[in-house]
Structure formats: structure tokens, C-alpha cells
Write a structure and sequence with these properties.
Number of helices: 15
Number of strands: 23
Strand order of the largest sheet: 3-9-10-16-13-12-11
Distance between the termini: 35 Å
Mean pLDDT: 95
Number of domains: 3
Helix content: 25-40%
Low-confidence stretches: 1-6
Bound molecules: glycyl-adenosine-5'-phosphate
């Protein structure tokens, strides 16, 4: 829940100088829009436009590929967002899923204590101290007014299930996907006949009534998580699984193009650990607004399954046929945000350079993440035979790939447009194509061009995609 402050005086630079560069590109090109914008917007909810939904789907696909498709020991789940309310009492979220909130006595604005100017970097113990406001002389950043003592603010959204709106019908919008995997542990273990160690992976919406959301899609009230729960034998096996998963998760961001110098690991101090965690290490990224959490890897011990077993009366023990032991498995969790990951890939891919006296903006997205893999462009849209050949090539590409046609500008401008949305390759059909049945394939990053027979275009693009993976 808390973001770490920037500590390092020799900090590396962010991939973009300011957030505004990405916000304006996202809006202009249709990656992300403010939700309900025509009504003035709703705070901390964002809508993914045509390119954004492709990017985020590709991020989720890449995660699923590495966490489920390529593994023999992990299976998927898509649990409901609404769950039995007792789940959240048992999990500790009703009691402990909260952030410290302070209110200004004059303007009545509310702030998350640890994000106030002057409170950055305070320890969790200081933040929990009721005298923290006086001790650190904290004031309202808006009007300098006096601030209240901090109180805990629960981040879960509530609604009512069914036609009666009373306390008995309260249900919560899940604040994490993890609990769906815990309450389904037995169903999944028995139906899939998986032996420990094995994992359950899930991608889905989560909701948190964040006190101070912001930094675009970094912290939202409605967002998507990509979480994997790995069930292991108690004790040392959990430590070993943790040590195995942490570098794997760090490497995943590098595999899809994030610069290693803008990634780091940060272990949570004892007083910072979430209520369920024995150990937690964050994968952090150097955003334009500082080093922030991208993903958390947690050793949750037997906290979740023991508590759910006790509260539900179900036996959630695992029977190990090899040793004939019964035990409650421990859980190592990898918890990532789909929005935060997509945002990171977008920021880290941003390039600005001068080419022949003109500014060129490009997104050097990994081809697996790029919204379109290829654009098909006519050099002369007035020649119907050229346009017709473009559409033939496009139709063939579309059977296997996201491909797009554009003829609304001159070729130079068309290339720039595709560069700016991260399309790795452009296929250009020109007058010669009608004679030699060959086209030009241009590469986004190197801007080099290669002449390829029309019949070989799809194979060439698929081969290039394959080699980007190795
Ligand atoms: N099940 C454990 C858990 O939920 P977390 O560190 O609170 O752990 C995991 O969340 C990830 O979910 C974070 O690293 C972040 O990527 C994403 N996330 C959490 N809160 C978010 C928010 N308000 N907006 C966007 N992403 C968020």
C-alpha cells in the first residue's frame, strides 16, 4: 500500500523527463482516457482506448504465457470479484487493510499521511505515532492549516448484495485477487490433481478506495492485478521458492524491454510488512516521479490457509502421498499490477531523437507488446492496384497478427505515426510492387528497409517476432 521514497542521491534518470509526455501521448493516440470525461471525469479511474486495450491485453498475455502456458506446475483461475464477506474478515482486510489519513482543520482536504511533504521517508513506526503531526511539524500542503491526528482509513469499497440494503447484505469489491485462489485451493488441487509445489495464477480487477490516487494509471481505485500463489511445504521450501521467484519476476520485465538500470529490488522493513507477510521484496521501477513498486513477492507463510480453515471449518490441509504427511501449505505470492506493468513498458519504450532535422518520437515496445505488429501503407493511394494489393497483404496478415492499414497522409508522416504508437514494422506497397511483386519492410528502431516478395511478407514478420523473443 505504501510507496517507497527516493533514497539514492546518485539516482538514475527516468526514461522520460516528465509524466506529462506520456499522459499527452496516451490521450492523443488513444492509449488511455479519463473515465467519464464528458462529465468532468471520475477520480482515479481510467479507460483504455483502442491502442491501450491492445497493449494491456498483450501485457496480460505475456504474463500468462510465462506463468501458466510455459509451466507444468501452475494452473489458472478466474474467481468472482464479489466474495462471501467473511473472506475479508478472515483475511484480515476488514481489520487491517488501511492507510493513515489526516484532515486539514480549515480547508477539510484529506491526505495520506505518508505522502505529505515532510513525511516522506518516515518509518512505519513514526507514521503510526499519534503525535507524528506535532513531532514533525506537518501542515496542510494546500493552505498551511492544522492537520488532525492520523486515523486508519479502510481501503475496501463496499456495496449491498440483493434487494435489501442493510448491514447483513454488505459485500466488498475485492482489493486483491489472491483470496479467490486461497478459497479455491482445495477445488483446484483436487480437480487438477496437482502435487505440491504448485501454483494458481489469476488476472482480474481489484478495487481500492485509495486516499491519494494519482500519477496517471500508477495508483487507481479500479485496477487489474496479475497474481500467482505458489503452494509449498512449510518452512525452508517457502524460502527456496521465494528466492527462485524473485529473480524470475525481475527478469520478466527485462525480457520485455525494461532497461535493467531502471529496475531494482527493495526489501520491506519488519514494521512495513503487510499483515499477512513474513517477508516481502518489491520489484521497483524508476518512474518519472521516483522509484516505486511495480510488483511484490511475498512469503505469506500459512497465514491465509490456516485462517480460512479455522474460520470456515473446512480442512485445507494437503496430504503428501510420498511422505504420508498432512500439512497446511505455505504460500509464496508474486503480485503484479497489469496497469502498472503496461504503464512501465510504455514509459520505458519512449524515445525522442532528431532525424534529418526533424523530431522523431517512437515507442520501442517489444513486438509481443506492441498494439499493432505491422502497418500496411500505400505509397500512392490514387493507384487502385496499389491499394488493392495493400488490402490483400493486410487480409493475410490479419489472420495471424494485429495489422492496420493507413493511407491518410504522405508516407513520411505515416511512418512517424506508426513509430509513435510502437508498430515494429511497416510494409509499403509502391509502383514497382505491381511489377516485381515485392514490397518494402521498414524497421521501427533502425529505420532500415528491406525488399521482400509479397508472398513472403507474413513469414518475414512472424520470423522477426520469433527472433525478438530469443
Ligand atoms: N495480493 C497482494 C497484493 O495485493 P499489493 O502490493 O498490495 O499486494 C500488488 O499489490 C500489485 O498490485 C502492486 O505491486 C501494484 O502493481 C498493483 N496495485 C496495487 N494497488 C494498486 C492501485 N491502487 N493502482 C494500480 N495498481 C495497483
Amino acid at each position: 500500500m505504501t510507496d517507497s521514497p527516493v533514497h539514492d542521491p546518485n539516482d538514475v534518470a527516468a526514461a522520460v523527463p516528465d509524466l506529462e509526455t506520456i499522459v499527452s501521448l496516451s490521450k492523443r493516440r488513444g492509449f488511455v482516457f479519463q473515465s467519464s470525461e464528458i462529465y468532468g471525469g471520475i477520480n482515479a479511474v481510467w479507460d483504455y482506448g483502442p491502442l491501450g486495450v491492445e497493449l494491456k491485453n498483450n501485457v496480460k498475455r505475456a504474463w500468462w504465457k510465462s506463468m501458466v502456458q510455459e509451466r507444468d506446475d501452475i494452473v489458472g483461475l478466474d474467481a468472482g470479484i464479489l466474495m462471501h464477506p467473511q473472506v475479508w474478515v478472515t483475511s484480515g482486510h476488514v481489520g487491517s487493510f488501511s492507510d493513515p489519513l489526516v484532515e486539514c482543520g480549515t480547508c477539510r482536504r484529506r491526505y495520506r499521511l505518508d505522502e505529505l511533504p515532510g513525511a516522506e521517508g518516515l518509518s512505519v513506526t513514526d507514521l503510526a505515532d499519534p503525535t507524528v503531526i506535532e513531532r514533525f511539524r506537518l501542515i496542510c500542503p494546500n493552505d498551511g492549516g492544522p492537520l488532525s491526528a492520523p486515523r486508519r482509513f479502510n481501503l475496501m469499497f463496499q456495496t449491498f448484495m440483493g434487494p435489501v440494503q442493510d448491514d447483513a447484505s454488505i459485500v466488498y469489491f475485492r482489493p486483491e485477487t489472491a483470496q479467490g485462489s486461497y478459497v479455491n485451493f482445495k477445488n483446484i488441487q483436487q480437480s487438477s490433481r496437482k502435487k505440491i509445489p504448485f501454483g494458481i495464477a489469476q488476472i482480474g480487477k481489484s478495487f481500492r478506495n485509495e486516499i491519494s490516487p494519482g500519477n496517471f494509471v500508477f495508483r487507481m481505485r479500479e485496477f487489474e492485478q496479475m497474481e500467482m500463489q505458489y503452494f509449498v511445504r512449510p518452512g525452508d521450501a517457502a524460502t527456496a521458492a521465494f528466492d527462485d521467484w524473485l529473480p524470475r519476476r525481475l527478469a520478466w520485465y527485462g525480457q520485455y524491454g525494461v532497461a535493467p538500470e531502471r529496475l531494482r529490488l527493495r526489501e520491506h522493513a519488519k514494521d512495513e510488512l503487510a499483515h499477512y507477510a513474513r517477508k516481502a521484496v518489491d520489484v521497483e521501477y524508476r518512474f518519472p516521479f521516483g522509484w516505486k513498486e511495480l510488483e511484490g513477492v511475498h512469503n505469506r507463510g500459512d497465514f491465509d490457509l490456516s485462517r480460512h480453515a479455522a474460520a470456515s471449518g473446512e480442512n485445507l490441509e494437503y496430504f503428501d502421498p510420498a511422505t504420508e504427511e498432512h500439512f497446511i501449505p505455505w504460500i509464496v505470492e508474486t503480485a503484479a499490477g497489469a496497469d502498472r506493468a503496461a504503464f512501465t513498458f510504455l514509459i520505458d519504450a519512449y524515445r525522442e531523437e532528431e532525424v534529418r532535422g526533424e523530431r522523431r518520437v517512437s515507442l520501442s515496445l517489444h513486438p509481443d507488446l506492441a498494439p499493432y505488429k505491422v502497418a500496411v501503407l500505400p505509397l500512392l493511394k490514387k493507384r487502385p492496384e496499389i491499394v488493392e494489393l495493400c488490402h490483400r497483404i493486410l487480409a493475410d496478415l490479419k489472420r495471424d497478427l494485429m495489422a492496420v492499414y493507413d493511407d491518410t497522409a504522405a508516407i513520411g508522416k505515416l511512418y512517424r505515426r506508426q513509430d509513435e504508437i510502437g508498430t515494429p514494422w511497416c510494409v509499403t506497397v509502391d509502383v514497382d510492387s505491381l511489377e516485381d511483386m515485392a514490397v518494402t519492410v521498414r524497421d521501427r528502431d533502425t529505420m532500415t528497409q528491406e525488399r521482400i516478395p509479397v508472398d513472403g511478407v507474413k513469414r518475414a514478420i512472424l520470423d522477426r517476432m520469433e527472433s525478438a523473443r530469443s
